[in-house]
Fold each of these.
Amino acid sequence: MSQPGSFLYRLAKPVCEDVTMARVLDSWLADLRFEYATADRWAKRIWIRVVYTAAWFESLCGVLFRSEGVPRAVAFQVGGTIATAILFVIPAFGDAVIARRPSLALLLLPSALAAALSLGSALGVLYSIGRRGTRASRTAVIVVALLCSVTTASLLQWVSPVTNQAFRESYSHWRLLRGLGEMSLTELGAETLRAPFEQQRNVAHRELQGRLALIAAPLALTLFLVTVVGRARFPRASGAVLILAYYVYLGYQRSIIRPDDNVFWMLAVVWTPTLLLLVFGLTTRRWSVNDKHG
Amino acid sequence: MLSRTEALLLDLLVAKSERYGLELVAASKGKLKRGTVYVTLGRMEAKGLITSRLDESPQPTGGLPRRLYAPTAAGRQVLKAWESVAHYLKPAFAK
């Protein structure tokens, strides 16, 4: 059996700067081992493990979210997401019905937010970290990107299908059958198997894969940007071009795929850019954690 | 400016010249937690309020060397200043 605290200590090592490891985590580990060795009963040893696991988590949060640049990076991500969601909804006010009933636009917000989370969090990373990114700030923005991915999945599964349908019915004053845009992820998954015609199944597949790619997008873009921002010659410009190209592609991919295309071609078209970003981001991150400042 | 936790830690360290992190938690009688003490001590060391060294004497349990913390001269002065300001700001009926 390994020494108590070894696993958590190893887990913190890629996240924390060397000086933080020496000042915070080394003391934590030494005190944990001391208390563990002096405990006379097994129940007390278990209790010590529990207490020190909580202390590890609290210390890591304290280190990460109080580090220089981290509150700024997280604030930029959150601010970028809100601003992007609002920008997505504003064009809807050009519609005469929505202009008369602005409350209808609220029903569009969940869908706008689902699309804005990846863009907003990526823009936040781009304009906050820059070349001064520390290991702590990089980890914090990746954690936020992960939360953005989870939030996007939750919105697409439980919220936007309901609000999209409510929007359509409020707009038209009719009871309408739900289309693919008003289905949750699980309903779309079922549609890819149950739809009577192959073309319908393929269209459902395209919709489902597109949404899954959108869920992966915040993490993929952030991982990639965290590496690019620190290394490229013109980090912000190249990052902005990358984000723009990615979003243009996301919009354009629907016209590349036809309903009678086979599923593998569809998967390749939808997933290739996201997977490339993920793979490059993950492998480059592994090099960068050994940097003096990274 | 000192936070309340930093002032408490300095106060405990000034009372006894050198202490382990765990001793500080025990001496605070529940005011300090293991989850915050190491981060706060690390921050205070970065500010120059305290200094630390690894305990070179062999551990009776054979574990890792533990870190001992002590206040610096600057830390003592800051605590003194903080206490006088706190005393000055305290309402007359509470003195």
Note: The interface with chain B takes residues 20, 23-31, 33-35, 37-38, 51-52, 54-59, 62-63, 66 of chain A (CB under 8 Å).
Amino acid sequence: MSFTEFLLQYWPRLLSGTGITVAQFLLAAVLGIAISLVMGLMKLSENRLMRGTAITYIEFFRGTSLLVQLYWIFFVLPLFGITVEKFTAGYLAVGMNIGAYGAELVRGGILSVPKGQWEAALALNMSPAQRMRRIILPQALVNMLPPWGNLMIELLKGTALVSLISVTDLMFEARQINNTTFLSAQIFGTALIIYYILARFMVTPFMRWLERHMSRKMGRS
Amino acid sequence: MPMTPIKLSIAAGLVVLGTAASAIAGPLTDRIEAGEPIRIGFSNVPIWGYPDENGEAKGFVNEIAIGILAEMGITNIETNVTDWAGLIPGLQAGRYDLITGGLYILNSRCENIAFSEPIGSMGDAFIVPAGNPMGLNNYQDVLQQGAMLVAPAGYNTIEAARREGIGDDQLMQVPGPSEALAAVRAGRADAAALTYFEADYLAEQSGGTIDVTDPQDLPEWTLNWVGIGFRFNDTDFMEQFNAALADYVGTEEMLASVEEYGFTASHLPGDRTAEWVCANR
């Protein structure tokens, strides 16, 4: 079967799979960013309990494989009474995993803000919350955006694993089509191209735009 | 493992945590009474159980299971496709209510899930490159020639190969039958050990590049029986299922529904009970 024939026959399934992948990506990204912010800030806290919690979370989710975490949420948690629907389990696992990596990026970004900024904010009588929200975080954001671009692409590729808990994403559809037609070259080639298109033309331009936007706002462009 | 009182109470505690309130009706009966669909789990194994273009459950085990459920008056069914090796863990985790998949009743599986009475029996075969260049017809041939055998993870053929003395250096495990075919085609393995139905189907689809060996060349104890898997706490439902099964399997209606897959009267299970098969396979 030629490539164009193949595409003409299977594009609806591939499109629906891509839709699920994008949905998983966006949900996991939102969750991951939220967790990163919280955990990154907690890790910088003076309070030992908060720091300890953040360290435990980060070490656990960074130190164990995403696939094992996915399987754990899908197969093992129900045995303890916590049953999560598989789509939710998918973006939960990927989001929590990415959150652990992102927390370190947030921490690094905040620490890279010059000490003078902290002192100036203190001199201006700003409360710690105001200082963080209005002075430190915006500057930290500019610094941490480039590595975040990397992490977002990792996240996109990480969503491919949810196919193993039968979420009908792009990889799942690709494998099902392969199992019935054995057209491995066409199907996996197409999946490869789709992931590349998503990363190169969806994630990367957005991150670049965000970087430029934030630099402009900070007056550094 | 011996069920010491502590392990027993822990196991009981987990079962209580993981199941619905009622101690008498199993979770599946509760689901049916609540009007929720029965979730069938299967993988993508040609002939046995696979999804078609629209996600409908095809394959003879699915057809028979759905036929039996229809006999029981149950038509509210939801199909779920997953990795083959994830079927039993998924059933245990309550992700599915019964698993078709294409599961042989094996002792090692009987320890983890309950099986219905057998719905069929068939043997295994190898797929080899056309012409069978290494002359591999059974496990002893593979062992003596130092050939590489590939089989999907969790399949009975892996247990059979190990029983015949094939070590891990000669055994490759892949996620499913299509990967096993790809391994043989790419020359990464010299033969793939699959069930006869799959092997025959793959050889037919291959356009002459793949041959299937004769299932009679494999030892007699590789003749296996197919059952449908349930959780241990759904045995109340399973008893009703078995009653309908006894009425349905072997009827003209059933044989007509599975004719397209090559399942004939010769594959009917006869008088074997699941208990006997659990003990002898």
Note: The longest helix of chain B spans residues 5-18.
